[in-house]
Amino acid sequence: MELIRIKEMKPSRIWLIRHAQSLANVDSKIYYEVPDYDIALSKMGESQLPVIGKQIQRMIKSPIQFRCSTFRRARQTLGGICDGLDSSIYNVEYDPRLRERDWSPLKVSADIKVIPDELFRNFYYRFPGGESGADTYNRFCCYWLEICTQKNIDCEEVWVTHGEIMKIIKAKLTGSSIDCSLRLPHPKNGEIWGFELMDDGLYRTRGHWRPK
User: Fold this and answer.
1) Is the omega angle on the peptide bond into residue 63 within 30 degrees of 0, that is, cis?
2) In terms of Cα–Cα distance, which of 156, 168, 150 is closest to 197?
3) Domain residue spans in the chain?
4) DSSP-derived secondary structure letter, 158
5) Looking at the whole model, is its pTM more than 0.85?
6) Which CATH topology does 2-209 take?
7) Are 38 and 69 in contact (CB under 8 A)?
8) Handedness of CA 59, 61, 63, 65 (dihedral sign)
């Protein structure tokens, strides 16, 4: 009975979208000048938005509940997607818990070059001033619990977020090993992952689209 109750509270379908190409994806030196949360899309990223939007319309039914990272590049991506949609078929919520993993000031420091690669792949290692993968997982789990306690009106859940946290979210939704999920190829800008709720309360991969 408890399993059935929890399953009924979960969204039946969830789609994850990585933001379109940002200026940092073109040149990481921008981290020296602009805070991570304020990095905008590149010209290429802006040109990707109509393509991503059309793909969303092909893959996803309405009504849609959009949830979006508060980082600028994610908000711009969602804005471009919504430009081609009737505003009566979707709702938008922004939440900082969907932001990318905080890598710390080391991301823009020469000191990052001396950090062993295995530490970047270590789920539990916390960079000074930043987050570990476990920290990111914990904040998402808090958000997930909140989502599951909301009234389910059978909307398509579409979350615009970032590459590293997408892999962490996949581990939580599917019940897969966090190590296996973190070893997945990093999603491309604009890539879409779909998930469908199963009878056991976990999710399975439902659809996938990668921009050319």
Assistant:
1) yes
2) 156
3) 2-209
4) E
5) yes
6) Rossmann fold (3.40.50)
7) no
8) negative
Give SS3 for 62. Answer: coil
How far apart (Å, rounded) are the C-alpha atoms in residues 127 and 130? 5
Query: Cα-Cα-Cα-Cα dihedral of 106, 110, 113, 115, to 10°?
Result: -40
Give the E-state strand segments of 102-162 in sequence order: 156-161
Longest dimension (CA), the chain: 55
Alpha-carbon dihedral angle through residues 59, 64, 68, 74, given to the nearest 10 degrees: 40
Structure tokens at 32: 């020296």
| Integer Cα distance of 65 and 194 in angstroms | 14
| Gyration radius of the chain over CA positions | 17
pLDDT digits over 140-173, tens only?
999 999 998 876 667 899 999 999 999 999 999 9
**Which H helix or E strand runs over 63?**
none
Strands 90-94 and 64-68: parallel
